[in-house]
Structure formats: C-alpha cells, structure tokens
Design goal:
Number of domains: 1
Shape: globular
Distance between the termini: 23 Å
Largest sheet: 2 strands, antiparallel
Number of helices: 10
Structural class: mainly alpha
Order of helices and strands: HHHHEEHHHHHH
Length: 265
C-alpha cells in the first residue's frame, strides 16, 4: 500500500503543477487509506505536504512575475489567521465521540473524513463545470477588499479543519473578485496555499507527535510531481484535463462517504 501511496503522492504534485489545484484534495485520503494515518493527524500532515509542494511550485511563477503580491496579502492574511486558529483551537476542541444518533456514534475521525469527502464532492463540481474564456488582461477593476477578506477567512477555516489547500476555491475567487488573469491567479493561489498551510501547520497542537519520516518522504515525492506537472503544463492544456480529474475526485468523495458511514458500521 505504501508504494501506491508514493505513486499517488506524485499525482498530487502533478495536479498542482498542471491545473493549479486539486492535488491537495487527494492528500488526506492518500495518508489515511494508503499510509494508515489517523484522520486528525492526516489533516495536519496534509498542511505541511501541500504547503511545501505549493511553495516549490510557486517559485517559477514568482520569477515570471505571475504573482500579485497585493492580492496574496489581502486574501492570505485572514486565511492564515483562520487556519492557525482552526488547528490550534477548533480541532482540539472537537471531542473524540461527537454525538450518538439512534445508536450510531459519530466520532471525530468519522466527522473529519465525511467533512473532507463533502468538500471533495463540492470541489469536483467546480472542476467538471466548463469555465468561460479567461480574461487575460492585467486590468483589475472593483478590487473588492471586504469580500476577498471574508473569502480568505472561509477558505482558511476549511483548510484548517480538513487539511486541503483550497485552490479550487481560491482560483475562482481571485479571477472573479480580484480580476486576475488565470495564470496570475494560479501563481498567486500557490503562494497563498503555501503560506496558510505551513503557518497553519505550526498551530497544530500535536506537532511533537509528527511522523517526520513519512511527512518529509511524501513531501519530497510530491515536489518531484509538481516539477513534472509544471513541465507538462507547457505541452498539455490543463483546462482540458481538469474535468477528468474532477470526475475522479467526485467518485473518490462518494466512495469515502459510503465507506465511512455504511461499510464501517
């Protein structure tokens, strides 16, 4: 299973490099089902893996001037705050046994995995849906600060709870609210994901229990994957592959919901 886990880790990086999002949505399922990591730890490990991979991937965009620093700060600052608070205070406050409904016990692990699966299903629809032609102009009209800040807080909270980078939420927000061209939105998104995920990881209350051997090995493999993804992005239109990946994420999300709620009980 570990071999499959490392193969899947390459795909995480390839997806981030090729379509700018989606890879992080696979990280928690890979850690839980292929490496046998408990969901709470998996969401924490995911923050480091996704953050490091996104940081590596963003270097090329920074060199090409495809990162909007102002947007990264306005969106990223509240997002970083939210993810840090979520990992340091919200997640530890969730009891191991949340509630019993008609004899069915909803545990913290079950809640985390179902929340993550629901997020996967939501993400899949945004990937499957055909988007209109990207506005490649550099003009930024109606830079809506309050809405961008609120969006940053929401994405940060989601990231903190389930360990996903949230690129599928960030990129549309940057294009629609900040009027960024698509390539600049992808580069800015990677910087935001890197900052909020890595700083959020520092807020993890069980940081000392981290399995660094596993985390660093998966991170290294995913980083190789993102380089390959960036190389492929020059030869393949990532927009054409995005719906295919979306269907895969949808199937995975439904499978996790069924596995956690039906097959395990």
């Amino acid at each position: 299973m570990e071999l499959l886990g490392y193969i899947a880790s390459v795909l995480i990086g390839i997806s981030l490099g090729l379509i700018g999002s989606g890879g992080s949505i696979l990280t928690v399922p890979v850690l839980v089902y292929l490496f046998g990591v408990e969901p709470v730890f998996a969401t924490a490990y995911s923050l480091f893996i996704v953050g490091s991979t996104a940081a590596v991937g963003s270097i090329g965009y920074l060199r090409k001037g495809l990162v909007d620093i102002r947007t990264a700060l306005v969106f990223g600052a509240p997002s970083i705050l939210a993810v840090f608070i979520a990992r340091a205070y919200v997640v530890p406050a969730i009891p191991k046994e949340v509630v019993a409904i008609s004899g069915f016990m909803i545990t913290r692990n079950l809640l985390m995995m179902v929340l993550f699966a629901v997020l996967m299903v939501a993400a899949s629809f945004s990937m499957i849906k055909k988007s209109g032609p990207a506005d490649e102009s550099n003009a930024q009209r109606d830079f809506n600060y309050p809405v961008i800040v609120i969006e940053g807080l929401v994405v940060g909270l989601i990231t903190g709870l389930v360990g996903a980078g949230g690129g599928f939420l960030i990129i549309p927000a940057l294009v629609l609210l900040s009027k960024l061209p698509m390539k600049q939105a992808v580069g800015t998104s990677l910087v935001i994901i890197a900052a909020k995920s890595l700083i959020g990881f520092l807020g993890e209350h069980q940081l000392s229990a981290t399995n660094w051997s596993l985390v660093l090995s998966v991170t290294t493999v995913a980083c190789f994957g993102i380089f390959f993804g960036l190389f492929l992005s020059k030869k393949i239109d990532g927009a054409k592959l995005k719906p295919v990946f979306g269907w895969f994420v949808l199937v995975m999300g439904i499978y996790i919901i069924m596995k956690e709620t039906l097959f395990n009980h």
